[in-house]
Amino acid sequence: MSGTRTGEPAAPTHSDPRRWWGLVVIALAQLMVVLDATIVNIALPSAQRDLGMTDGNRQWVITAYTLAFGGLLLLGGRIADLVGRRRTFVIGLIGFAAASALGGAATTPAMLFGARALQGVFAAVLAPSALSLLATTFTEPRERGKAFGIYGTLAGSGAAVGFIVGGVLTEYLNWRWCLYVNVPIAVAAVIGAYVLLPDRPGTTGARLDVPGVFLGCGGLVALVYGFSEAQPRGWTDPLVLALFAAGVLLLAVFVWWQNRASSPLLPLHVIRDRNRAGCFLTMMLAVIGMFGMFLFMTYYLQEILGYSPARTGLAFLPMTIMIVIGSTQISARLLRHVGPRMLMVPGMLLACGGMVILTQMTVDSRYATELLPALLLMGLGMGLTFMPVFSTATAGVAPRDSGVTSATVNTSQQVGGSIGTALLNTIATSTGASYIASHLTDPSGRAQVVREGIVHGYTVAIWLAAGIMLLAALVAGLMVTAKAPKHGVPADRPVPEPVA
């Protein structure tokens, strides 16, 4: 029984010189998935004009992707475990490229929405297999630190890179290239996967937990959809409340079923581990604040300060650089010597400090002296946090469960992004409207009051985001008690499962 419960042993890979080139392939695929959540944001106004979208349905360009991606991640992770990680990785890449080409060639809003949903489906297959390939390829502590430092950089900076690339492509080519750009990246990654990545078979004799798929994926879809609809409809809208209720009910039944299923979609021992659960929760809270900041800063720079799309994207570049430094030069080096919370707690505190600085912005703020310091702190904080989160969450997992564990990390990130976008945008909109209503005494000064009201709404929401970052630091400090990985001790030693 123990042989089937722990899964196949991970093959030693430190003698394979191709593994670092394999990391490049994994990194390319992960970057493509992460930046696609934001790359179309800056292009959305152009796409709306070109295809004749209404203000009411334009959100589906974003929602269709996040809904399919966030809702199907658990299924994608388990498929990677059952079918084999490289095979699933390649299927995800090919499907993602085809969906991107379809979206770039869209002639109607419905065609673009459908293509974005397909992108989300294949991203849900691709992202868990990429992270599980990384987790099972790099197990020696020193190499694992470097590899996860690079991966953490992509996870933390991918959204910012999306703004940069989206701005440049939209301004100098057109919005369609924000989708077409995925095709050559995917082709290169497919070739690299066949040449450089190990091909290990999936788990033999295991079956897919079909009831678990409907319950777990259905619950996640309902929650993500509920958060996306809360933004335009309001939190008390009957549809939003029904979606939340359905999501909670389905996930509660899902947990009940996972205790009884012979081949569970998400083995509960994966999330019962204190350190892993702490990493999942820290990731979700961190991303809530980060996505809110991206949303507000994008609109602030373009609508209040008058930046072009390309200049708006480049404004995030210093933050991206700090994420790289925090992940690869600080976290990756220190994680071998200190416990992960010694990086995660300071990281979240730095990010919180950056948020607090942003609460002071006004309609006349200057980028270099008032916005840049906040972005630098945010970037450094995220770089310090994301790398140990990914490394710790995937350490000590049996190879047969590495795909679904990786999917759970990605799910916490995706759900956090949905919550952050909906919650913080709702708060910003409502407080901004209240400010305008109470301060609009002279109609001749309406334009200035509206601008001030918009910025006031942003700052109130950013205060909440700062509080959420502080809560993330608290969660990391109390729940993530893992010690520093010792030299020479591989990270693929499975956590024992409870015997039924």
How much of the sequence lies in strands comes to under 5%
**Shape summary:** globular
Radius of gyration: 22 Å
Q: Could you give the order of the helices and strands?
A: HHHHHHHHHHHHHHHHHHH
- What share of residues is helical? over 70%
How many helices does DSSP assign?
19
Compute the number of strand runs: 0
Structural class: mainly alpha
Q: Which stretches are poorly predicted, pLDDT < 50 over at least 5 residues?
A: 1-14, 492-500
Largest sheet: none
Ends apart, CA distance between termini: 12 Å
Rounded mean pLDDT is: 82
How are the SSEs placed, and which strands pair?
Blueprint: H1 2-6, H2 19-35, H3 39-51, H4 60-83, H5 85-104, H6 109-137, H7 141-172, H8 177-180, H9 182-196, H10 210-233, H11 238-258, H12 269-272, H13 274-304, H14 309-315, H15 317-334, H16 341-358, H17 367-394, H18 402-439, H19 446-479
Helix pairs in contact: 2-6, 2-7, 2-9, 3-7, 4-5, 4-6, 4-10, 4-18, 5-6, 5-9, 6-18, 7-14, 7-15, 7-17, 10-11, 10-18, 13-17, 13-18, 13-19, 15-17, 16-17, 16-19, 18-19
